Amino acid sequence: MPEPLVELLWWDGCPSWPEALEQLRAAMRESGFDPERIGMQHVDSDAEADRLGFVGSPTILIDGEDIAPPGDEPTGLTCRIYRLRDGRVSPLPDPADLREALARKGSS
Questions:
Q1: I want to staple 14 with a disulfide (CB 3.0 to 4.6 A). Which of 18, 36, 75, 79 is the partner?
Q2: What is the 3-state secondary structure (H, E, C) of 3-58?
Q3: Which string of b and e fits 26-59 if b means at least 16 CB within 10 Å?
């Protein structure tokens, strides 16, 4: 099975991205993918955020698709807010969403 293209988009003003990277690496290992292949993209301007559709840090893309599509959130240099499966708000995506997104790509 081919490796999916996994990218972490981050902004250095957000303290959550290193933990998101660790969660993503763990999810990739669990899914049988090489966590060393994660592409890292530092977003450092509002213009770049607009160009990329970046709605905050951390953003995780798998084959170009956001694992938690943001809806109508504005782009910009900010910390991202995720809604966990139990309804709580978090600066990190739900680990189950990471695993599920990787499983979908692994089976396609």
A1: 79
A2: CCCEEEEECCCCCCHHHHHHHHHHHHHHCCCCHHHCEEEECCCHHHHHHHCCCCEC
A3: ebbeebebebeebeeeebeeeebbeeeebbbbbb
What are the boundaries of each domain within the chain? 6-107
The per-residue pLDDT for range 24-62, each reduced to its tens digit, is: 999 999 999 999 999 999 999 999 999 999 999 999 999
Give the pair of three-digit tokens for residue 105. 């790509």
Average of per-residue pLDDT across 90-94: 96
What is each CA distance from 63 to 26, 78, 101, in whole angstroms? 18, 23, 10
Q: Give the mean pLDDT of 75-88.
A: 96
- pLDDT over 90 for what percent of the chain? 87
pTM, 2 dp: 0.93
Alpha carbon distance 56, 104 (integer Å):
24
